[in-house]
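re: ur msg from earlier - yeah i can do the adenosine-5'-triphosphate complex, just paste it... oh wait u already did. ok heres what im feeding in:
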Amino acid sequence: MIEVRNLSKYYGSRAAVDDITFGVDEGQIVGFLGPNGAGKTTTIRILTCFMPATNGSATVAGHDVLTASMRVRESVGYLPESVPLYPEMRVREYLRFRGKLRGMDRAARESAIQRVVARCWLQDVIGRPIGQLSKGFRQRVGLADALLHNPKVLILDEPTVGLDPRQIRETRSLIQELAADHTVMLSSHILPEVEATCQRIIIIHEGQLVAQGSPEELRAKVTEGTSLIAELKGPVTDVSAEMRKLAGVTDVHAQAIDGWTQVTLTTARDVREDVYKVSQEKSWPLRELRRDIATLEDFFVKIVAGTRV
Amino acid sequence: MRNTMAIMQRELLALFCSPIGYIVIAGFLLINGVIVLWTGVFSPGKAATLRDVFFWMPWVLTVIVPAISMRMISEEYRSGTIESLMTAPLSDFQMVLGKYLAGVIFFAIMLGATLVYLVLMAAYGNPDLGAAFALYLGLFLIGLAFTAYGVFASSLTSNQVVAWILGWVPLLLFACVSYFVVGQVEGWLRALFQQVNVIGRFEAFSRGLVRIDGVVFFIATAALFVFLTVKVVESRRWR
Ligand SMILES: Nc1ncnc2c1ncn2[C@@H]1O[C@H](COP(=O)(O)OP(=O)(O)OP(=O)(O)O)[C@@H](O)[C@H]1O
Ligand SMILES: [Mg+2]
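and the outut:
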């Protein structure tokens, strides 16, 4: 549904997006994750035909953003980051205007407005001027506008920023419902956010793509090479030697702690069961066995801190 | 087509729902009223013509017209709504055209309000309706050209006040220069100023002469600035 090939965007001589390539399949919810200034909005603006790329190409719903821009704009529903709306217009007026802009006739417009107003819980504010609405309602008006023409692709730039926890939850479940018949790409700089809603995560940092995959895949990538910490009551050298024998253990670090031996194992696979067996065979009591799990959050923080994985 | 109309309607709505629209109309009518009193066209014994009143009109319009169009594009940039417009399925030309048409319609409504003077004259005197028609046509043509220039000025900045000044000052200078300087210079410069002499061209209309080269000049100027506005809007995508 979305294909991005070697896309770059320069502001002057600074690269905001630097040679990124990724694809999004039909029906997926994809999270576009990156810290502030990573280039998320810039990428999204290229995909929605707001600005052209400096290099590379992108297609959305099978149409090239540069050569078939109108087709792309027809197939995309876009919620910009700042949710720009006309404050002097009433909600109904605004949605009618947007429907007309999209070339819908009166009947199509009115039924579409009814549908999105119900979907985005706007019934109570439909006659109010947009300028008087709270941030949460403005966000919903923006979302309603993005859904008006029932687009194949929905691109939402930070859809939950500035919302209260309840509204975040509502928006999330709405997005999940929408995924049934739309391909959704949403950006965020908050990991739990995308972890909760998305089937795939694309992480960018300083304009470059640093990781992509399902949350599970990314988690596996992180758990790879995690360390296991065990404390057994046995001689330091013996414990250390036994641990080295276990398949999958690449490094062992042992130290004595008040009569116990604490070993830190670097492993390529889960060896907790093997450690237990060793403790049984050698009759070394086991008082601690834990994985030093790196969370996706750590992973993300590491990326943000500048360490490439 | 429908999307151009959508832009136009929204623009008119914004003009009529904001104080600016009313301030502009009120200002325009006030200035006109003052000119009417000052020129004393309604005094007994004067010829029933609006020519003296409308002699000053182009100068007034240099101020008024850019005020109509000043926020049309600049405000879209300032508030960020340009992003939802430019990602909707309408071309940059359709967007600019919709806004331009709204400006023209607003101008026509404003100008229409001055018809009341004509009606009064017809009630108490015997104005030459043919000449009045030429006069109004001339003013409308000026409106076409000035509005296009005002929209152009609005596309250059994201500040309405700057857009107004960028619209007003060059129009005023241009009108002055072409009117007062044209007699002072010789040769090709004179030929050039004669071509772009807005006031001079309008004077022909105000004498009751509908000159075809005048009509072409104003319409071509309008087309040029609509085109330039589209180019500016397009080029701002690249920044
Ligand atoms: N119009 C612009 N002119 C110059 N530089 C810009 C412009 N827009 C963005 N940038 C720069 O490009 C980089 C990427 O910006 P972008 O807005 O795409 O980041 P982002 O990932 O959306 O960040 P955030 O999470 O804060 O929204 C930033 O360093 C930003 O300063
Ligand atoms: Mg952003």
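cool cool. Chain A has a mean pLDDT of 88. ping me if u need the other ligands too
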